[in-house]
Amino acid sequence: MNSPFAPVGTHVRLADLSDRGERARIDDFVLAHPLGTPFHRPAWFCSVAEATGNAALALVAERAGALSGLLPLDCIASPIFGRVLASSGFAVDGGLLVQDGVDPQAFFDAVRELAERYSCPTVELRGGLLPQAEGGWALQDGSHCTFARPLAEDDEAELTAIPRKQRAEVRKSLSADLEVHAGRGEDALAEHYRVFCESYRNLGTPVFPRKLLGAVLRAFGEDADILTVRHEGQAVASVLSLYHKGTVMPYWGGGTWAARRLRANERMYFELMLHARRKGMHSFDFGRSKTHSGAYHYKRNWGFEPRALTYASWTAPGAAMRDMNPQSAKRALQVRLWQRLPLGIANRLGPLIARGIG
């Protein structure tokens, strides 16, 4: 699995991900690169591929015996959504990383060749260096935004950093009859997944397999955990977070219908800020949201400023562009129908569908 690609100027090859040493070299490269994210790490793209039955791939370049470029990939197949080569699968980032002097075009040429080899009519690059909008490549700018800011120096400063109206909601949550627990065990995962399933059904989105969340939680070790808010012994809000180079990222989370009344989500995110600082984190990455969506405005209410994201996609000649926009007419109808499903049916069907969303 180390077939060479030979664009002019930079030699790109397919990494051997069955080799522990190769995976360790990739991880070291990501941790050392200033733009490396959790989604570039083998702990992410190898785990999600294995848990969803898809294939993990990685294009790498070397210089003087050391890695000088990386493009992690998941080859995702779905009878509903088609086949896509995504960097990285089930992620909001994870695009091309290179050192100075490495030709990025060599990777863009190589990934198109790889897509053809794996019968994927679509390539999606989420973040990182991006190609020019030519040769089948298209750029999507501003459809999503990300939100991040530094953590405050202490608990009281964290509270006062929140804008007044949202701070009032957090204060109410702090006086409510709520309990907060953080953990990494199977019990924490099971409790989290029950909340996660209900939350995703209510949003009209097929829920990811529990195996996917568990695989990421185990692969990241101490760099991942679950924080759960309970009311009268029942979990009402829960989030699985990643920790990377001083930043906490609440990634897979949600709440039950009761969470809004109890302000459990407000408690959850505020407690996560405090919990992350105690773990030595210095910044809070609130993640990606569709521009001007409800989640987008919710994060702004917390005092986070949006930063527009740009993604790139390549579509093979003659193939239709992959439509994953939840606000398109087709997807919006599917969302409304999914929201009406009984929770038990949504929980059985959701993982079968979601493993191909990517």
Automatic annotation (TrEMBL):
<dbReference type="InterPro" id="IPR038740">
    <property type="entry name" value="BioF2-like_GNAT_dom"/>
</dbReference>
<dbReference type="InterPro" id="IPR017469">
    <property type="entry name" value="PEP-CTERM_FemAB-rel"/>
</dbReference>
<dbReference type="Pfam" id="PF13480">
    <property type="entry name" value="Acetyltransf_6"/>
</dbReference>
<feature type="domain" description="BioF2-like acetyltransferase">
    <location>
        <begin position="167"/>
        <end position="300"/>
    </location>
</feature>
<dbReference type="InterPro" id="IPR050644">
    <property type="entry name" value="PG_Glycine_Bridge_Synth"/>
</dbReference>
<dbReference type="InterPro" id="IPR016181">
    <property type="entry name" value="Acyl_CoA_acyltransferase"/>
</dbReference>
<protein>
    <submittedName>
        <fullName>FemAB family PEP-CTERM system-associated protein</fullName>
    </submittedName>
</protein>
